[in-house]
Amino acid sequence: GSSCAIIRPPRDGGIRYRGLTQEQIRSVQVLPVDYEIEYICRGNRVIVGPKVRKCLPNGTWTDLSQRSRCLLLCPRVWTSLENGRVSPWPLGPPVEGTVLHYSCLPGFILMGRNSTQCNKMGKWDTPKPVCHLHPADSQLNSKKKLYIGALFPMSGGWPGGQACLPAAQMALKLVNKRTDILPDYELELIHYDSMCDPGEATKLLYDLLYTEPIKIVLMPGCSSVSTLVAEAARMWNLIVLSYGSSSPALSNRQRFPTFFRTHPSATLHNPTRVQLFQKWKWTKIATIQQTTEVFTSTLDDLEERVKEAGIEISVRQSFLTDPAVAVKNLKRQDARIIVGLFYETEARKVFCEVYKEKLYGKKYVWFLIGWYADNWFKIKDPSINCTVEQMTEAVEGHVTTEIVMLNPETVRGASNLTSQEFLAQLMSKLGGKNPEETGGFQEAPLAYDAVWALALALNKTVGPLKAKGHRLEDFNYNNRDITAEIYRAMNTSSFEGVSGHVVFDAQGSRMAWTLIEQLQGGSYKKIGYYDSTKGNLSWYGNDKWIGSGPPADQTVVIEEFRYLSQKLFVSVSVFAGLGILLGIICLTFNIYNSNVRYIQNSQPYLNNMTAVGCMMALAAVFPLGIDGLHVHRRQFPVVCQFRLWLLGLGFSLAYGSMFTKIWWVHTVFTKKDEKKDKRKQHLEPWKLYATVGVLLGIDILSLMIWQIVDPLHITVEKFTREAPKGDLDVLIQPLLEHCSSEKMNTWLGVVYGYKGLLLLLGIFLAYETKSISTEKINDHRAVGMAIYNVAVLCMITAPVTMILSSQQDASFAFASLAIVFSVYITLVVLFVPKMRRLITRGEWQSDAQETMKTGSSTNNNDEEKSRQLERENKELQKIIQEKEERVSELRNQLSERQALRSRRRASTVTSQNHSPPPLAIPQSDPRSLAPPPGYPAPTCDPHPPDSKISRNNCHTSRLQLLYK
């Protein structure tokens, strides 16, 4: 069901496919949903039944139950009867099957059949009858007839003829009875149904002009028909007087030189609309119009007027037959105050779509034309698929501007009828038909007054024409003099009619008041009048709104700045404040103990710079957290500069002084060739300070250039609009202030690049010098540790804060905590060990005092070394003692064995008295065999290599190592 199969055209007709070429039409089998086809007929045939069909989502076409046929038209001459009435059945164009019933006016007799039928051949089945004057009324024959050719739309976009034709006939009857108005003439109306269709009207105009009798004036109804008739009328020197045309395009004397209308121009609505827009403080409106000239020109006029009033038309939509897309576009573009310009049938289509799109309710106000029937939205319409309840819901609260067409005062005018008497007579003529369902009921007073305006103008011309030797009955389509006289009389018309005071402006348009009404609870209530000639608005104050008052003309966008979380700011500020306090303590400690040799050997001035730099960096946390909540926008650029300078100079001082130490340690102590000479070389402090000065100078210079060339200013970042909680017709536009400059990324790239290189170089140098010890800069290892931490934190934080720049809390937290941690780590690593050492060892004396007491110039490093050597010596002595005990034990075992041997030998010698005595082995303490410390151990072995003693105990090379 997403497409419809093509359907066959009616017999003697075809189908117009919009937007398709001949080749596509031949090959196409199915058409998409919402596609419209239009039937067209050949020759002198007209379509009866639906003219346009639309493809529905269920795969069928609209109105398939109604057949569309192309039928021949029968001659229209049969549809009017001089001195009689013609009643067609059914209403509409005279085609096959149409039956006409004839009757004569009082005083006339019908000669011929009283009915005729149109056949398939396009011919009437009987000759046209005529109405002959009754012999008794022959005295009336002395009156000359003046014929008015009128087009009354009985159907179509505005079926105004349904009430306007009876009203015009009422006026004619009264005029013809009056003896003081055109006493020698009788006005007669020859009228056709134009169906409010310019094409149909063209045929009828031809019939009017080219069939007898000659018409002295033409009276069209619809704007589209009047445009055609009034433009052609000049060629036949005819005055055109319309009772139902509101198109502003008709107010053009060059194009329509003989045109007048008792219906005011639609542009008369526009001053009223502008007045209401201003009253309700709307500066942005939207429009939706049917693409016909009347509405296009009304809209052009409205556009000029709202522009003068400083009001903008933000959305302008139009449609030909199907408003669905136009209504969707209004919804999508957030239209709120919508001016709708379309005929009544299209109004139903529009509001059915409005219901579907939910483009109604307390957020929206619709401005419609006020000349629809009062129950226009309740009328069953096969072209829409909305219920009466849905339509009633969608139209509730709309405002109409309507020309005052019925005199609100009880004044008897030219016709000697008050407006209420006229209405009562019209109602009886309509035969009890519901006025709300009768097209043109509101405009009926205008048709009534149009006939009176014409009669009074023709009456005014009788004298001047007589003076020139002309008579009204002499009029023909070539006689300009009579036309000029009628024009002059019409132009100066001024009388009280049932529609109010009748007067024409220079363009032939009626001047009138505007009535403002609002649909409240399903019925129209008067809420005011506007007199555009005086600019006077009479307001009743009974307008009702679904919300608390008139809605806003657009979604109210509240700009809301995003500010930093104050809890976060305070928390980080406390840490920063404590950090500054710690920095002051460290700085005070360093200055106070600057004479202590241990502090002197750590280059205290550089450490002081580090402490000051750390405090400056911490101070930058405060301006980092200051935003529009704390300072005015004018002072914000100053805060931006503070951030930049404090952070830049703080980094240069703190990191620069640490980098300088590492740099000089590396420079002095890593050249292997001259290492010994360099150790003795004196490190000049001014070189260290100069290095820091250079780094600081580079920073100051770059910041100054940045500030002069491309100073920081506020930029405001806009985020996606957010809907607040609750059913509020507002959107929040979140905004965030940034410190920025035109080429911010370039400057940041330069600064980050330079600082990044310093950080990387710092890491490298710290790694290279980690094993070096020097008495001139005794804390370079601590400095290296601080550099590692600072470098890692900075290298992570810089890119992260750039990425998170749109999230103020996260960005501030990252940046400020990185500063706080860097500073804390630096201060703790650099200063706390010094404090601890001085406190635990009591080394508070200065260098001079230390020299006086000890006479020793041993530096702290030597003391450290001696302590380490003492520890090592104790461990070695312990090992020696263990070894000596083992040796002693072994010597005891040896002496015991030797004693055993000697006893054996003694017994042998006793048996051999003459043998020499054996060598005596003295039984001394085995320890005496151990060589004294510092002497070489025995190298000869008195025992055989395979003896157990020799293998395990005799070699004392290990002892030798222990004593070295």
UniProtKB/TrEMBL annotation:
Residues 575-854 form the G-protein coupled receptors family 3 profile domain. SMART domains: CCP (SM00032). Pfam families: 7tm_3, ANF_receptor, Sushi. GO terms for biological process: gamma-aminobutyric acid signaling pathway. Keywords: Cell membrane, Coiled coil, Disulfide bond, G-protein coupled receptor, Glycoprotein, Membrane, Phosphoprotein, Postsynaptic cell membrane, Receptor, Signal, Sushi, Synapse, Transducer, Transmembrane, Transmembrane helix. It is found in: Postsynaptic cell membrane. One of its GO terms (cellular component) is postsynaptic membrane. The chain crosses the membrane at residues 568-593, 605-624, 644-665, 686-709, 746-767, 787-806, 812-832. Belongs to the G-protein coupled receptor 3 family. GABA-B receptor subfamily. PANTHER family: GABA-B RECEPTOR (PTHR10519), GAMMA-AMINOBUTYRIC ACID TYPE B RECEPTOR SUBUNIT 1 (PTHR10519:SF77). This is Gamma-aminobutyric acid type B receptor subunit 1. It comes from Lates calcarifer. The gene is GABBR1.
